[in-house]
Amino acid sequence: MKKTIFLSIFIFAIMLMSCNKTDSKVAENTATYFQNTETGIQTGGVKMIPIETPKGKFNIWTKRIGNNPKIKVLLLNGGPGATHEYFECFESFLPAEGIEFIYYDQLGCGNSSATQDISLWDLPRFVEEVEQVRQALHLDKDNLYVLGHSWGGILAMEYAMKYQQHIKGLIISNMMASAPEYDRYAEEVLSKDMDPTVLKEIRSLEAKGDFNNPRYMELLLPNFYAKHVCRLPIDQWPEPMNRSFSKINQSLYVTMQGPSEFGISGKLEKWDRKNDLKNITVPTLVIGARYDTMDPKHMEAMSKLLPNGQYLFCPNGSHMSMYDDQDIYFKGLIAFLKK
């Protein structure tokens, strides 16, 4: 009996010591993650980065969340022309895993310098902008992961084509590698999924170039956006997403994407890098979703064309699957980053 009591006390003591060590480790990791590395005036992780362009100098807004010398995720937002704000849901998942990430508003977006010079809306120039941001933030192949969502995925792919020697890994979220193939998917799949009467009226407005007609968005919201952009009830769309979308730089969006939601007609109309994916050798995660505006089968094929690619499928998600299929999106992303 005494031996049993002694053994129970001994086991309890070991468990208590183990818990104390775990709590201590968690506290240590938390302290390290939130360690302040800024010098001078404290700005909450915000850093304005001056960049050079063919049209002079501009300032780019960035904000660092957390501190992890091995994993730093630079977020490239979509649109083109949206803001970093719809990525704010990342704060509910990455800090708990000790993963550092960096918000970044591209030129002409959000808190970065505003300009209406459409000559700056050019893919190679945006690539050089990302490179200048990387250098200013002292990110390198030992820690930098570039995550590009939607248009940001195009930018991420282009950046990796030229500068992959500076990155540790790549995440292409909800973006195909070919604008012509996206056009075909929009025409052959997404359009046919819509009520023919609604589609006819949308096509009529587009043919007239009447994109600013309130009726155009009135038709798109329930018949396209609610099905393929974010499948949460429209009146429950997340505030950070609404806030970001409300600030879209229309000049940038129309110049690069074109005014229509069915396919691409702007500068990116003929963009196609599918056959060049074999040249991206860094570990790459491609994220697709069942109800996305982008073809999930195409994105799965992309992962197989990448020498070190893998695919994450969000069965309940759409284009904003970081919101409408959060559990699978973030579990997969975190597993990739930690692997």
Automatic annotation (TrEMBL):
Family annotation (Pfam families): Abhydrolase_1
Signal peptide: 1-22
Keywords: Hydrolase, Signal
PROSITE patterns according to UniProt: PROKAR_LIPOPROTEIN
All residue ranges annotated as the AB hydrolase-1 domain in the record: 73-325
Family: Belongs to the peptidase S33 family.
Protein name: Proline iminopeptidase-family hydrolase
